[in-house]
Protein 1
Amino acid sequence: MPEPSKQDNFIGVDLGGTKILAGVFTPNLKCVSRSKMSTKGERGPEAVIERIAHCVKDVVDECDLNLKQIKAVGVGAPAAVDPESGRVIFAPNLKWEDVPLKKELEKLLDLPVFIENDCNACTLGVYETELDPKPRNMIGVFLGTGIGGGLILEGKLYSGFNHTAGEIGHMVLDVNGPKCGCGNKGCFEALASRTAIFRRIQSAVKDGQKTVLTEMLGEDLADMRSGDLRKAIKRGDKFVESVIEEAAEFTGIALANLVNVFNPEVIVLGGGVMDQLEDEMLAIIVETAKEYALTGTMKGIDIHASKLGDDAGITGAAVLARRETK
């Protein structure tokens, strides 16, 4: 393990509905240690914030540093946040409303803490560590349990009037489509997230659809993961392939809308679904985006998948901490 310099290290925290991931990063954003802990959101904000602090202390100890050698902590939260005050406005998966996350964490750690929406943080992480030279305008789209995004406009993270810009997953793509967790029908998230894909497969199996997934996982498809879908397609499962193809087409339509509105130089795709199914989805996404975007608007635009994988969240949170303390 490379020796982190003894000062000016940063911590990136990825706060999720099920797990907290923390990483120690050197000044040049090399991750030297990681620590993971379950979130236990049902215990309420105070207990979760204590667990975040605990996870941070663990990861610092893991690489033989102490908190005095950490310059700042960045946190990506699955929420609408006010980055100025560091308050979580609303986090549906954690059932939080108006939680002073920055203030409480700073009390526990005695370090500067900076908070951002998780997908905004992931977008920052990709922008700083993967895109060189830096484009002026870039969009990050993350396909996971839900779908989120981040906008870099004119070189800066754009958060909008109410700090909620980048809710790409809630663009409505089909007004008669399936109901989304947000209450609307036919959101991008209700059509192409892992949750949507799994729901579609499970309901088809209940209706008698044959798939190799039932041989692999049993009739109720418990513990299904995105990687299982890739394996099923490799084994020639035409049904799973058609479900993934449809999710890729909806993603392409969503990207065409983003290109029509923002015309960024680069769109980067990430998240668990993309990590596992890039080979099966990316070409269809790009082709569909070209088909639906206005003539001429796609010229020269680069659409590709991120290589950061699971580290996107902690990397982005560390980038946030480094940016804010410069």
Protein 2
Amino acid sequence: MMGCKRTSTPIVKLSSGNINTVTVVTPTLLWETEVGDAIRAAFAFPTEGLPQQEPMFDLRQMPPDVFTGFARSSRAILWVGFSDEVVIRTDKNRYARPQQMTVLSAPDTASLVEMILSQSTSIIKSFKQGEVAERQRRINKSVLKQNILEDRFGIDLVIPSAYRLFKEGTNTAWFQREIQKGHVNLLVYALPKSTSINWVDPLQDVIQIRDSVGKAFVPGRLEGTHLITEEAYEPYVYYTKIGGLPTIETRGTWEVKGDFMAGPFVQYLLDDKANNRYLVLEGFVFGPSAAKRDYVFETEAIIKSIYRKNKD
């Protein structure tokens, strides 16, 4: 008689939850002390480059005895509590897939607070990588079919099908999708290698490039107006790598010179030596009165999906 073949491999359910949400598993009494204050200070810090304050992560606290069943399917979990010894541990896909659960425990409050603050940078980086991957996974369900990026730049991006090619130039492509009372934008353009960029202190060169491209290619609603980098707030600048290339990352706010329009942007300027050029990929959002963190994050996830057809 034939029977069912049994397997010892456990079935791991799919993780769930909103993008950029962290489940914090800690007793409520601890959440209401300086330990909770440290968690909020580290993980709900205002997102850089947004015109209004929005937290880096939405924190969803629950005590350990409630952390059962569906609650365990969260993608990003931070477990904080007391133990006899100091514990810093990261579990991958323990209750669901994909999932990261970071466990921080210590014998006393002061040690816990110090641990949270000292470990937060690496934990945030890992959580963010997981959220970018999840956003890209969701985008992959319905992708925009386009050839302009390969034809003009030798690259490809995984762009949601809700976007459309809004405007194109010889070395520029502008994609856009409508949102309620606004739009999310993705700008791609190439610059000659002779473009002046000070990689030691690049901010002023980045602003000059953004503003000149804005004047030439991104007009405002009114005649004679165009997109510029907002003059009142200095953008944040970092060094990173995108598609394996040295990259200047800039986050800040844009405005329209001569009009009352503004919003956040994230820009990546890639040093594409193999093709003797700089490649610039930027996301910017216009959405008056709307929360914008996740829209900017969407453009970041799109840009980080870059695939270079002309690899060195």
Protein 3
Amino acid sequence: MYLACKFPTVKDNQQLRSKISILAISGSLRPNSSNSAVITTAATLVAGEVAFIIYEGLGSLPHFDGSDDPAPEVVEFRKLLSEADGILISSPEYAFGVPGSLKNALDWTVSTGELVNKPVALITAATGGDKAHASLKLTLTALSARVLEESTLLLSFIRSKMNTNCEITDTETIQAIKNIMDTFIRDINIQKN
């Protein structure tokens, strides 16, 4: 059962370029997903510190086919990845694995290297989540992304930490997300300087 939730969407408003930019990707295509709520919470916690862009085109990416002439959606996705100082991924676990749409998006970067040495924070929010979390860490390692262990978080039983408005209400969970984001932002700043 899934909650029918609504929450605000953070849009790219091209804040001052002196701020670092984080591209956030929810691995769920559900409009009211708990992973989108995690991203919204993360965005709220770092508001004012970074330019936070939420990628909403995951479901429109074509199936990966290794094309040398990819669709415009793929070109735009790769551009967003390249321009961001860091990438935040929040993903559910489907059938003990990574959602196909998220894996498909990551596959589009294999030959072009947008994630090579790119700071990435990974949050897996699911009922269990450990298998998807481990799989995503392995995939990001294969893509040569910079994923610090301190920038990863597994949030099991995420729905029990939320209210009916899809807001995370559990104070320990909110603090854990804040800690991950603080570490992630510090790492991005180190990489930039």
Protein 4
Amino acid sequence: MADTAITMRGLRAGYGSTTVLHGITARVPRSRVTALVGHNGSGKSTLLGVLAGTLAPSSGTVESSCAQRPALVLQRAEVPAALPLTVRNTVAMGRWPHRGWWRRLTGGDKAVISECMDRVGVTGLAGGTTQ
């Protein structure tokens, strides 16, 4: 459909042997604000991870008519809250789908990160922590 940005069909995903999403079929409209609500542990972050490409589904399909994937920045990872993660590090997470989790940033990645930070007016916070 022309007014649909993302279509999910029979989507299943999880962690290890634990399935969190069970047969999700849905459409996300184009050019609309869409809220994802649910109880803790209901699979919201898992679904967003699949849509952003940081978590592979175990079955089903995700089709996007958008030129780019949605970005995903986690509020808290499975690490201590005192982890010294800078604002620039956090913005750099948006490059993961383009380079993988453990590959070094390229000059092009660094340019994109700087441009994005400048665009939203947070360049001055680059070295500050996200805590």
